[in-house]
Amino acid sequence: MKRWIAAAAAIRLALFGVLSPACAAVVTAPIQVAPVQVPVPGPVVLPVSGMAPLQGPLQTGLSSLSGPSALTPSVIPLPTPAVAASPLPAAAAATPSARESLTAQTPLKGQVPGVGEGRKIAEVQPAARRGDLSPAGPVQRMDFKTLWSLPVQWEGIQEHKQAYANLRWVLSTDPAALGQIFDAIKADPRVFTTTLDGMFMSLRSVLRSPLPASERYPAAVSLAQTYAGFLLNLRRRPGLPDSVLRRSEEVLRDFFVENVFVEEFARRIMLDDKLRQLMPPPSLNPARGQTQGRSAPSVMSETPWTMSPPIPAGSRKSTDREFSFVKKLQDLDTRLREVLFQKERLERRLDLAREKGFSRDFVQARAVELANYLRDTVKPILGYAVNGVSRVTDILFRNQFLLGRGYAGDHKTAIFKSDKAHLVLTPEPGGFVVRAALESDIQEAWVLDAVKRSIEEYWQGSFELDGRTVHLRVEVSILRLAPGQPFSAGALKVAEGTTVSHARPDGMYLSRSFSYHTPAHEFGHLLGLPDEYSEVYDGPSRASIHMQNEGSLMGGAAGVLHPRHFRMAYDDLK
Question: Which pTM was predicted?
Answer without folding.
Answer: 0.65
